[in-house]
Amino acid sequence: MSILIGRETRLVVQGITGREGEFHSRQMLEYGTRIVAGMTPGKGGLHALENRVPVFNTVAEAVRQTGANTSCIFVPAAGAPDAVLEAIGAGIGTVFCITEGIPALDMLPVVEVVRAAGARLIGPNCPGATSPGQAKVGIIPGSIHREGHVGVVSRSGTLTYEAVQAMTDAGIGQSTCVGIGGDPIIGTTFLDVLQLFAADPETEAIVLIGEIGGSAEEEAAAWAAEHLRGVPMAAFIAGRTAPEGKRMGHAGAIISGGRGTAAEKVTALEAAGIRVAGSPTELPALLREAGYRG
Amino acid sequence: MKIQEADAKSLLAAQGLPVPPWAVARTPAEARAAAERFLAHGAGRVVIKAQVLVGGRGKAGGVKLAGSPAEAEEVAGRILGMEIKGIPVRKVLVGPAAVIVKEFYLGAILDRASRRIVLMASAEGGVEIEEVAKATPEAIHRVEAHPLLGLLDWQARELAFAVGLAGPHLRDFVKIAKGLVATMRANDADLVEVNPLAIIRESGPEGHVERLACLDAKVTLDDSALPRHPDLEKLRDLDEEDPADAEARHYDISFIHLDGSIGCMVNGAGLAMTTMDLVNRAGGAPANFLDIGGGAKADRVSAAMRLILADPKVRAILVNIFGGITRGDEVARGLIDARARQEREVPMVVRIVGTNAEEAARLLREAAFETAATLDEAAAKAVAAAGQATGGAA
Fold it and tell me: Which of B148, B224, B228 sits opposite A104 (nearest CB)?
């Protein structure tokens, strides 16, 4: 088992004929992800990736013809909110939105519609997810993973790769790695992913990688303190040296009015009994110290 | 993006909100002329406010009253010569000084936790809201605007009653609260704040009247939305901007200047913050945050190098690349090319892993770059190199 994606995933890629969409779809196919459809308005009837993937004009058509149940969006920011809503309208249950730079206010009605439909949106501005040995959706390099039982959840991209590589090098495999995205308004939070991991029998330990801005890490820590006692956990928080009032690359990574600092997050995590690493390379050792034997 | 008070007031006024008149002056003489106009139109005194993009202007002495054109000129001259939190004051706002009966706080923010626009109001107006939030959080009242329908009248009324604005000002308060949300939506702002929103007393032909007015305004705009608001991009205050920021924007590089001596070049925002943190942990201080973004090629690497070296405090450079979309060999070629053209010699430590890392390693070896296998090792080496470059500890 795993969370969000796995062997049962039947993926439709929205924007498969674009440069990014095509490049990453190729990587996903090579990893073994079942991409059953592509979608680009006006390119219906074509086949992408050397004839391996049929392209449809609409997501609804892709769902009807191929039984797609998951979507991955590589559509430019101006069209991405519409792409999410189209996927939801077509009955897709899990939508990954990789697109960066979507205006935050555009996402407010979108997350509401997703919630009302009982669907799940991961991102935007996220690297996607990998369930090692089963499927990867998004842009995370497949080579860094190893099959195993640690769930990883992060707001970041390359920082996650760094942490996952360190785990893989230490012989610690992953059940699922999820990048939830660096924007202020995202569909799936740390707390949501912790709840999914808690319900997944294959996930035995959890690594949480947060950063400055907002209070999602604190909310996750409070929940973990109550519901994840006995589950080995370790965390890392980026931005201990970040100055106040500056957006550190990610739209959501900002300390404002003295709130959202790394120190607050570290304190909340430690109060929940979760050790926080000083460097991502220390995460494997902290997991072992927390009692993880896998 | 932060914008100046005067520009924020324009955005509020454009949505029909009650904002008293104002003028912007860049010289004491301009301030005098503006004061003359306002005093001639019935103002008892004028207020002169420093226009800088930092809070705490009042405490720093950047907000003063004047009773005559001559005094306005003199006061403006003093404020225009000031620095507030290190920022030289280059312009002032001049406006009629209001007779304030009572001050409130009203703000609309993009709330991450609820994923809604949240309206906040407090009867403790005119003071920093962060202070109120710390000392008496119960004094701040909040309502969440409906994600599809926006702020509803009853929600605005609820806020009005909570801050004690029942009587004659209720209707205007509802309009103003909804106007804040409208300002947010029209401009893709993530914050619209009026502090103070005040009941002011004015004398008219029929005696005194009291009404609500937005005496100050703070708006921050969502950077991601600026491409669809070319008119708002013009409000960027280049006076207060580091020239490096404009170059960084041009090359699509995220760059933030800091005070340390170790320049950092990294791909990915989270990893870039982590690299800074590890430099700090190794006993050094980062000179900047710099994310070259995904899929960076040689030209962006060269631009990043120029940005880093433009800071004379930089004594060593740490390059940390975890290749995914970004190809390590492309970055290595960019670095070799940039080093050949750079104007001053600064020790550099390079760590490239991931996509095409082997080819990158070969190129860097041939070009005699100092390399590191892990991020921790790279940070330690960079800190040591910076220490040697300054002839002592980093």
Answer: B224
